[in-house]
Amino acid sequence: MPATQDPRDEAGEVIRITGLRVSFSTRSETIRAVDRVDLTIKAGDTLALIGESGCGKTVTGMAMLGLLPQNAKISGAIRYGDLDLLSAPDRTMQQIRGKEIALISQNSGNALNPVIKVGDQIAEPLVIHRLFAVQDAQKEAIRLLSALGFEEPERAAAQYPHEFSGGMRERILIALALICNPRLIIADEPTAGLDAQVKAHTLRLIKAQIAGNRTLFLITHDLGTAEYLCNRIAVMYAGEIVECGPTRDVLAMPLHPYTQGLIASLPSAGLHPIPGMSPSPAHLPPGCRFYERCPAALDRCDCEHPELFEAKNGRRVRCFHYD
Amino acid sequence: MSRKILLWVSVAVLIVYIAVASAAPLIAPQGPTAITGRPLDPPGAAHPFGTNDVGQDIFAQLVWGARITLLFGFFSAGLSVLISTTLGIVLGYYGGIVDEVACRIIDVVLPLPTFVLLIVLTTFFTPGILVVSLLMGLLSSIMGIRIIRSQVLSVARTSYVEGAKAIGASDFHIMSRHILPNVMPLVTFRFVSASQHLLVMGVGLSFIGMWDTSTVDWGTMIQNAYSQGGLALGLWWWILPPGIAVVGISLALAMIGYSFEDTFNPRVGVNRI
């Protein structure tokens, strides 16, 4: 079997998350950040994980990279080929990170090391994974900078991060993730903090880069970004997946009341916010986690916890209305 | 602006000292211990700084003494910074129980007076200039470990370090390529201030006879002048040159250190405007 094929099942699955639970214990309480999450990403798939801040979407992404903080309690499994990423030894994870599963991180101002030239930072994954010699890695970095719309890539490579604008830095972060040609790209809010025009430009670049049948796992709170980049969508609420299906279907006909609320809260739909707040992950209600805010709640929703029910067209939804 | 001039003057002074120390064999080819004149000659054409009680040239002693004194200061400071940077980065990056234990040990050792601790420690070894210098480096690194560790704590939590983990970088790679360059300004500052501190301390230790008194350095020069009657007789040319030499380099290093601090710590530099 050729090397480029190996960590995939017959079904073409790149990654399969089953029953992932992540919790953080503090002295007084236990915070359940992610609860029984099941997700499968197939080769060439583009999946968006949507949800509000603190719903556990970033924790899910970090779990795939094995980069959760040490105090995280993790159970479940993340299958990557023959490997369980949750129990893989550190050295194996180091070899996978950046080379096979790469992260486009949030552009938070210090996402790039301020004292290392941009070209060197982009080339770094190639050098770490010994794919290229330093000289060739530099050339590769310059080539990628040019592909990502830098007009003078040689000059850009020799500059430091503070010499670039937010949008340019985000493109540099994209280059950093793409350079090893990874099997799976995890993008965590790749357009956070960018203005509308730069955001559109950045999204176009990401779309162009993933066009060649690349696999993308997008973490975002922005439905528009998810719609533009992804063919499948999973909606997360208070640590659980509440709805999952093809992007077009989910957006055209959302099944879960939370998804309906999300779409109604878009400016284009009249900007109707969902009343209330999501429950604290330290004190989750016994029933449906959306019960408090749900306009269509049933009596049983208060004390019974809904499963992820199968709906039509391969969609799944965690709501008793579809039981 | 005046700070900037002060920095450049200080750097120039430092360069002169280092140049003189390196060129000692050219400047005073007779060596520091050669008897080249009558005892206790005041400064004159043959001996610019006069001679001491056995007729050795004070200028030659000063020039050769600079080698030992500077070397002691810079070597101990280098060692001190090496230890504090390595341990500071490792403890700050990994944290955990080892870090906790190390910090408590530092808490215990830190308040002990270095000078006394050093004198006690030297009783376990044959006191020599190298031993004293190693011990000085070790002892003065303790404060540095703490300072550098606290800086590493904040660097280790930045997104670029997280990002470096996400590209599969090893811990060693992260510490050497990502964290070290970001604490380097602080390390440089620590080196300069430790050099100043340790150089002056070296002169003091040599004065009280921590190593062979026949070694010619500025401390033994002052010690000789003091014990052989130079002070009592008011022979200023014997006692002043090493004293002024120490003050000069100490000031220069201190000024360089302050200018660095100005740049790194905006709160100190407010009055510069």
Overview features:
heterodimer; A: alpha/beta; Rossmann fold; four-stranded antiparallel sheet; 12 strands; 23% strand; B: mainly alpha; MetI-like fold; 0% strand; disordered C terminus
Tell me the CATH architecture of the domain at 13-100 and 214-322 in chain A. Answer: 3-Layer(aba) Sandwich
Low-confidence parts of chain B: 268-273
Can you list the strand order of the major beta sheet of chain A? 6-7-8-3-9-10-12-11
Q: What is Rg of chain A?
A: 20 Å
* Largest pleated sheet of chain A: 8 strands, mixed
DSSP, total strands of chain A: 12
Number of domains of chain B: 1
Mind summarizing the main beta sheet of chain B?
none
The level 1 CATH classification of the domain at 13-100 and 214-322 in chain A is Alpha Beta
Report on this model:
The complex is a heterodimer of chains A (323) and B (273). Chain A has 10 helices and 12 strands. Chain A has helices spanning 57-65, 90-96, 118-128, 134-147, 153-157, 166-178, 196-210, 223-229, 247-252, 257-264; strands spanning 13-25, 30-42, 46-50, 72-80, 83-84, 101-104, 184-188, 215-220, 232-237, 240-246, 309-310, 316-317. Chain A has an 8-stranded mixed beta sheet, with helices on both faces. In chain A, strands 2-1-4-5 form a 4-stranded antiparallel beta sheet, with helices on one face. In chain A, helix 3 runs parallel beside helix 6 (166-178). Chain B is mainly α and 273 residues long. Chain B has one domain (2-22, 57-268): MetI-like fold (Orthogonal Bundle), CATH 1.10.3720.10. Chain B contains 10 helices and no strands. In chain B, helix 3 packs antiparallel against helix 8. Chain B starts with a helix and ends in a 9-residue tail after the last helix. The model of chain B is unreliable at 268-273 (pLDDT under 50). At the A-B interface, helix 2 and helix 3 of A face helix 7 and helix 8 of B.
